[in-house]
Amino acid sequence: MPYNPEIHKKQSIRLKGYDYTREGLYFITICVQNRECLFGKIENGEMELNDIGIMADKYWIEIPNHYPQVTLHEHIVMPNHIHGIIEIIGNRHDVGICHDDAGICHDGVGICHGKSLQDTTDNIVGTCHGMSLQQPHERQFAKPIAGSVSTIINQYKSAVKRWCNKNNCEYFQWQPRFHDHIIRNEQSYETISNYIINNPAKWQEDKFYAV
Questions:
Q1: How confident is the model at residue 191 (pLDDT cuts 50, 70, 90)?
Q2: Count of the separate structural domains present in the chain
Q3: How far apart (Å, rounded) are the C-alpha atoms in residues 95 and 109?
Q4: Phi, psi of 87 (to 5 degrees)
Q5: What kind and span of H or E run contains 176?
């Protein structure tokens, strides 16, 4: 179903009481609106990125350039979604500047481009995802705290969208929400990492599969 603000209420599914700026590992999934395959296609079990997919991958890899407290682990750009594990290695709210080319900033004010997210969506990947509720660092009608997971992902999404708008790909839109899962132990980390690595080879079994 296409996103409808009257149907999909803006309630958060961030984990209630959890500090999303604290050190830890987070499994992130971001979808293209209506799950359209706008990043490329799967050929012989491997992902072939188109121009938008290449930039989505590039901006993901560059996240630590703008958020020094973030370390990236496994990630994959699929035809209509992105999976990635990010690790916050320090609670650093550095005052910085807005990086116009990428549309990313990490200043104390919050986001520069894009909107504040109060995320809601269904679970995916079976046991790899648990439902979470409200993030304490997101006040109602307020911008996320700098350095939080929501701010990092929101700025990443804005960077990709800005590039699309400048390169005749204005039709590209993100799903307004994103999925997150807090990785709590080594077994969960290994399961999720293997899922990401094998995602292209198992594309037809994927919940997001589309042609």
A1: very high
A2: 1
A3: 9
A4: -120, 125
A5: strand 174-183
**How far, in Å, CA of 197 to CA of 181, rounded?**
17
Q: Encoding tokens for residue 103?
A: 């549309």
**Burial, 180: exposed, middle or buried (Cβ in 10 Å; 0-12, 13-18, 19+)?**
buried
Instruction: State the CATH number of the domain containing residue 59.
Output: 3.30.70.1290
CA distance 41 to 36: 11
Rounded to two decimals, the pTM is 0.69
The four Cα atoms 122, 77, 62, 89 give a dihedral, to 10 degrees, of 50
Give the containing element (helix H, strand E) for 184.
Answer: none
Pairing of β 24-32 and β 40-43: unpaired
Q: DSSP 3-state helix, strand, coil percentages of the chain (rounded to 5)? A: 25, 20, 55
190 occurs within a structural domain: yes
List pLDDT tens digits, range 145-189: 777 899 999 999 999 999 999 999 999 999 998 999 999 888 999
